[in-house]
What does this fold into?
Amino acid sequence: MADFGQDGEWAIEALGLVKRFDGFTAVDGVDIRVPKGAIYGILGPNGAGKTTTLRMLLGIIDPDEGRRVVLGHERPTDIARRIGYLPEERGLYPAMKATEAIAFLAALRGVPLKVGRARARALLEEHGLAYAADRQIRQLSKGMAQQVQLLGTLVHEPDLVVFDEPFSGLDALNQGKLETMIRALAARGTTVIFSTHVIAHAERLCDRVAIIAGGKVPFAGLVDEARDRLRPQVRLETRVADGPWRAALPPEARHEGAFWHFTLPESGVEPLLRALIEGEAGILSLSIERPGLHDAFVAIAGEAAARALAENAAQAEEAIR
Amino acid sequence: MIPEKLRAAAVIARRDFVAVIFSKTFLLFLLGPLFPLVVGGMAGAIGAQVDKELNQPQVGLALPAEQTRRLLAAHAALADALPGDVPDFVALDAPGTNPRALLAKHLPGHEGVLTAVVSGTLDHPVLTATPERAHLWQGMVALFAARARDDHPAPLPPVTIDEVATSAAKVKSGQVMTAQAGQVLLFLLTMLLAGMVLSNLVEEKANKIIEVLAASIPMDALFLGKLFAMLGVSMVGIAVWGTVWGGLVLVGMKSLPMLAAPAVGWPLFVGLGFLYFAMAYLLLGSLFLAIGGMASTVREVQTLSMPVTMLQLMVFFFASYALARPGTMIETASLVFPLSSPFAMLARAARSTELWPHVLALGWQALWVALIVRTGAVLFRRTVMKSGPARPKKRAKA
It folds into this structure.
């Protein structure tokens, strides 16, 4: 990266970030580039290094090695006013009223209290929480308090928003609302980076992802690029169970129920179709499916990381129930 | 343009100040110093009454009747002219009775308890009492007996009084008293108030807002904001207590001890006292904030409060010890050592008219406040912000 930190195209550029705690390497040489205005996901199971990476990008902690440039600055705390951050462990002062809590978060980011209060009331009204404006945080439900904090994260109209596991603890309805909000932010030109262990969120929202496991990032780039690391999958159903056409299928093809499953050969779909027709297989159905991000994650991060990811997602769902 | 750190510190200070001042417990905080005063006052009044009832000394006179009468007359003539407490004399009308037997019982018809008995004659009076009383009253009994023997005692000559306002020795000792009083007051206020900051960061940790703060503002701004908020709270407390105390003085508590004027004069001494309180508070408070920042639970803070109180006591004792040794290396050390410097410098203000050392000392102390805040903030960021909520013992939270 000869032009590191010089290109105005990137909201975040990180190169070789390393962080060790008590001899344990939590993050081991992470490279990330987040384009301005993108929705960027950091995907990985708990313990992979997501939060530590985000904390380094925010300047909460400094890396032991490596460099990061955030919105053109090497010290992210210098441009804290342009950043919004929602940590995984959410919390506000319980005795503060909702309006005051949002105005306080705005004041931390340089917005005068009077302006912050006005914006807070407008945001609460816009999101259907006007009735809670003068209630203390301790009087709100957990979900409402989380929404208040989310509004506090955005009240100063940041250029970059960092969410750490933003969907955890939210029910399906509020997860949907948050997805809508993230898309709206990106549409306004705000860069959004979030960590998650739920592939579906990343797949629905992100232009780019970084897959992180064991403190390393084996892949960082476009979601499509991740998918394209795998060949398309073919699902074939034939009328005739066996025949000379079988020779056209790759050796690893497996028969499950009425279907054959196999990876599309390098030669493409046309030679396969020709062989099936000439061999009178009697094609009932044939579909070619592009691999999902889940498959890409398994291929890139490995089975163990994928299993951990699935377990985290299941635990999170259980916690909501 | 306000520097970013100060602006951020002001946001934190405002939040904390408002949160404390408008809390229900703040009234209790204001009333706090009244409790020991009320309890102490009540205990003192009761003790004084008991003491008066039990220890009003009476000296029984077991001399022949005429000699007893003359001794009582001598007591009446001289008692008011003698310094200190002169015991009452009572006639026992029991000549020849063993004085030891008289002391051993409570005599009917007499209030109080006999402390001593004078028997024998005016020429050879015998004082029967415990050793300490006997030595205390031996001269007094001799004086009264000598006067009682005289058939025509001369009246006491009038003494013309020529009062002077003070003397060099009195000024010096008075200023030392003022210095000590200043140190004690400074210590009491600092001990009462500086300890509060020990638990100041626990709230942010417990409410999980610390990470948002760490991402939004410089950590030393957070520390400074918290320090100044609590300093503000302390000032409110001192203003209220000072007003109440001033009111009581005006109402007429004339028995309050009057201190000698300090060398720099009262207005400047009070002003310096205010500044040195602020510095002592900021120095100890920043240290406590840094120490308390390492604690993650209220229980840990409670465990820390004892050693922290001991530290305050040691600082105070050091400054007090140095007060009695002017011009020595010990005094210099107490002036230079940042934590004892405010106490030692306030004492110096009571005894020396030089003002430039105060400017130097205040700058020196402010420098140390900045250093401790900076170090505390760096340590806090390094040690506390390193771990996530679900981080296993040996692993960082991802």
Observations:
- Chain A has two domains: 10-223, 233-289.
